[in-house]
Give the backbone structure.
Amino acid sequence: MFDGFKMQGYNREFFKRFWFLIKPYWTSEEKWKAYGLLSLITFGIIFQVMVNVQVNRFYKTFYDAIQEMNARVVLLSIFQFSLIVTAYLLVAGYSAYFTGRLTIHWRRWLTQHYLNHWLKKNNFYRMEVLNLSIDNPDQRISEDLDFFPVLTIGLYHGFLSALLNLISFSIILWNLSSNFPIHFLRFEVPGYLFWTAFFYAVIGTVLTIKIGRWLPFLNYMQQQYNANFRFGLVRVREFNEQIALFGGQNTEGKFLEKNFSFIFSNFLKIIKLQLYLNFFRNGYMQIANIIGACAALPLFFAKKIKFGGLTQISSAFGEVISALSFFIVAFFDIANWHAVIYRLTEFEHRMQLADKHESLEHIEIKKDPGQTDLQCKQVMLYLPTREVLLENFNFTIHQGDHVLIMGETGSGKSTLLRFLGGIWPYGRGEIILPQVSMLFLPQRPYFPLGSLKEALAYPGNADESSPKEMKLVLQACDLGVLTERLEEVNYWSKELSLGEQQKLAFARVLLQKPAWVFLDEATSALDSRSESRMYELFKKHLPALTLVSVGHRESLVAWHERRLTLIKGGEAQEGHALVS
């Protein structure tokens, strides 16, 4: 179900996925900018650790001076401390700024990469028809691609800081207790302060992993449940009229409540697990604050160190514990990071499968600049269930032809059009296309979010046509009421009736003047007079147009010279098709 999603820890598969995600950006054209920002961030981390070491030394000098009533050293220490803190604030501020810069640059590159791959070769469509669809790709692109660089850089910052603090303060603890070894099984063990901190942190880390081992899985599922719930809400908004007319609001409400119940129950599991982790982590950190001082008390009582030394040891002990406890402190972020990595690599894997599918089906599509006709050779089309729609189909559409494709429901008319458009992946054979402009009009037209002129010019550029041309084609298609709304931004798929949308699609053809047009029941919402009007406009303004229509109405026959009748199940007359 989770495409190899394993929750038993960070195994080889996880690190392969992680490398798969980070490698493209750090070897891309932006790599030097990325490495430059990362170097600045790394310098900031190193400097902050150096400051921590200096502050630790300050504690010894400052409190020893107070114990000795040395006012001069106290004042000098305070002055030095103020300089250190000022430098620290500057470096920490710029480090955060550079972290933000690297994060947004990385996110921008990842977003472009995933969008290009998702849109390439119509993968957003192919993944659906190839049964490779994945839940909520929009959420993975918009949210997971935001979380991944933020969490990765944040964890890098935390890990490197913890590692450097561990090295620096372990040396301090070791040096402070190296002359006071402890004995274990007749062996002398130097540096007891370091070993005390080390074993305390190891025990804490092991217990944290044991308590929270299911948190990454629960976070993964919570992201999926939230995305599913949001998708359901969007569907209600998108199909509000149909739901209202059916009186389906109660059914939709139950469906949304059911989706939210998954969010609710899974979240209860998360916060219950977080409760246990917080109990343990807070207790662990509170004990860590005092255990260092307790470990140093034998040296203090033996008068080997002064009060400043006791404070220094307590501080250094806390830093070592904190460094060794990085996994405990960052466990929630690591759990989210784990889930995000699996969701993104799962998405990328599905897109790669969609890319590879082309070679498995042996569909060959050629565009020949010297070709004027469209030729189908030995074409076989079938459904995802492997039910055959067309078999050994050979057909030629000549330049200037007007061809009507008819047949009973389920005979493969729309599928044949999708195949001619190069987007249907189930089949085999060869199709040779002329190198000319083509436009496909589906039954329900698509209009992008934006102005009316952008909807009219889609997929072209609205600036390539003058407002006068646009107004003329709108008037010709009986849409004169829209001529003063070209600059208006609206949700045109909701603003216009289906009939008006189909007329607007015809206006799009008149504006763009393609050489070939394919209509898939593109007049189904129009009355017979309006339908005749649209075809008459083609005949008048685009006399050289090659027209291929799919439809059921007998009234369409008058506008086409050739008719291709498909028979369900692949059976047909005259080689699987009847041409008259």
